[in-house]
């Protein structure tokens, strides 16, 4: 027994079977590989049975009672085999359950397929799906994707004529380029409704661009209508994608370029410069008008206010004159002589009060001579050579100064101003 126990288990036995009955794994000669489960359990039972038989046989300590011991060992072995199979099955079930756990990222949605058929859509977080029964497709629904129509940015914004050349309503050709930004809004439709949703989006966008450009004239597309055209293309593209159930959502459409073909680029540049000059002149005229009109309005308002003030002043003066004339008339009716004398004195005061005058009172005479010295002095100031002649007027041929200072006894002169 000791010699047999010391023999390696992978050595063939003497009966030519090619395996050692003591090898619990049942390896055959030099062959390696996973053993059959039934064969493994059978080898293990035979090995244990041999161990128990050697200890409890006729030559052993057990004597003739070895039969009972062998029966107890068989029952223990059957109990151990049942428990082992249960443990293995439990481990397999645990591994199968763990294999069905999957995690969906915050920006993703999980599309669950059961036996290859759509079952449900799951949101972010941990989930479980039966392994080998369900399969999960994870789709990033928050990623912004980009499609370029009419040009390619990786080639230096190089134009793609089959996509970029469009015919307008006035039968002109324009070279346009659009950048479309989109994302996935329905993961199920994106995966199963259309074979290639991204290519479908490119074709739908190009079709929408041709329709929108074909409904407008060239000048509108190239100048003022760029934003309008881009928005209309976005709306029309989304309608087509929804009709095909692609599961895509167009977030924005940007017109990257809009120009005439290269063959007429120079002529169009001249037209653009002329249009820019026109706009510049219009802006200058608007600025000049904005500067002049407020000033003119201010001057007009000032003139109106002055006229209104003058009007009010004239009315007030006329009303005052009328009131004074009426009061004088009333007084004249009451006392004509007194009023007449008063009016005369007032008139003489007004006339003589504003001029320089000299009165000569000759003794023994009744004549008063009025000499306008202010006129004489003014005339003397204008003509120095004629000062003597202009200032010698006294009605008698004598100089006023001499008459005023003459004290020979013929007369006494007095002057009053």
Structure description:
With 417 residues, this protein is of the alpha+beta class. 52% of the residues lie in helices and 17% in strands. The protein contains 13 helices and 13 strands. Strands 6, 9, 10 and 11 form a 4-stranded antiparallel sheet that branches. It has a 3-stranded antiparallel sheet with strand order 3-2-5, with no helix packed on it. The protein is elongated. It starts with a helix and ends in a 12-residue tail after the last helix.
Break the fold down into its secondary structure elements and pairings.
Blueprint: H1 2-6, H2 37-56, H3 66-99, E1 101-104, E2 108-114, E3 117-122, E4 125-128, E5 134-140, E6 145-149, E7 151-152, E8 158-159, H4 161-164, E9 165-167, E10 173-184, H5 187-192, H6 197-214, H7 218-222, H8 226-244, E11 248-259, H9 265-334, H10 336-352, E12 358-361, E13 368-371, H11 373-382, H12 387-390, H13 400-405
Antiparallel strand pairs: 1-4, 2-3, 2-5, 6-10, 7-8, 9-10, 10-11, 12-13
Brief description of this entry?
This protein has helices at 2-6, 37-56, 66-99, 161-164, 187-192, 197-214, 218-222, 226-244, 265-334, 336-352, 373-382, 387-390, 400-405, and strands at residues 101-104, 108-114, 117-122, 125-128, 134-140, 145-149, 151-152, 158-159, 165-167, 173-184, 248-259, 358-361, 368-371. By secondary structure, it is of the alpha+beta class. The protein is elongated.
């Amino acid at each position: 027994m000791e010699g047999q126990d010391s023999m390696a288990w992978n050595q063939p036995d003497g009966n030519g079977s090619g395996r050692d009955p003591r090898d619990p794994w049942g390896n055959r000669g030099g062959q390696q590989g996973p053993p059959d489960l039934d064969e493994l359990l059978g080898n293990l039972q035979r090995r244990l049975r041999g161990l128990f038989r050697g200890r409890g046989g006729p030559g052993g300590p057990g004597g003739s009672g070895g039969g009972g011991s062998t029966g107890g060992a068989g029952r223990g072995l059957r109990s151990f085999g049942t428990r082992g199979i249960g443990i293995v099955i439990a481990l397999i079930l645990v591994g199968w359950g763990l294999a069905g756990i999957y995690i969906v990222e915050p920006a993703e949605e999980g599309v669950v397929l059961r036996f290859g058929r759509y079952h449900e859509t799951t949101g972010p977080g941990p989930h479980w799906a039966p392994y080998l029964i369900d399969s999960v497709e994870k789709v990033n629904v928050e990623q912004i994707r980009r499609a370029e129509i009419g040009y390619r940015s990786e080639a230096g914004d190089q134009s793609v004529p089959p996509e970029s050349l469009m015919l307008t309503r006035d039968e002109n050709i324009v070279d346009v380029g659009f950048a479309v930004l989109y994302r996935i809004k329905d993961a199920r439709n994106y995966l199963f409704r259309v074979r290639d949703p991204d290519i479908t989006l490119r074709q739908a966008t190009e079709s929408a661009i041709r329709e929108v450009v074909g409904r407008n004239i060239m000048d509108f597309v190239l100048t003022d209508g760029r934003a309008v055209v881009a928005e209309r293309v976005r709306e029309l593209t989304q309608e087509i994608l929804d009709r095909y159930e692609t599961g895509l959502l167009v977030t924005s459409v940007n017109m990257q370029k809009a120009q005439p073909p290269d063959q007429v680029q120079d002529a169009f540049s001249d037209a653009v410069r002329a249009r820019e000059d026109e706009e510049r002149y219009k802006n200058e005229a608007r600025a000049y008008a904005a500067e002049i009109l407020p000033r003119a309005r201010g001057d007009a308002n000032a003139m109106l206010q002055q006229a209104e003030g003058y009007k009010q002043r004239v009315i007030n003066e006329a009303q005052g004159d009328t009131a004074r004339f009426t009061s004088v008339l009333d007084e004249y009716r009451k006392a004509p002589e007194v009023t007449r004398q008063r009016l005369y004195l007032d008139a003489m005061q007004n006339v003589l009060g504003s001029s320089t005058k000299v009165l000569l009172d000759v003794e023994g005479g009744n004549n008063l001579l009025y000499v306008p010295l202010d006129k004489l002095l003014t005339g003397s100031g204008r003509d120095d050579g004629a000062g003597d002649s202009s200032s010698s007027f006294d009605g008698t041929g004598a100089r006023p100064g001499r008459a005023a200072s003459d004290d020979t006894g013929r007369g006494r002169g007095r002057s009053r101003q």
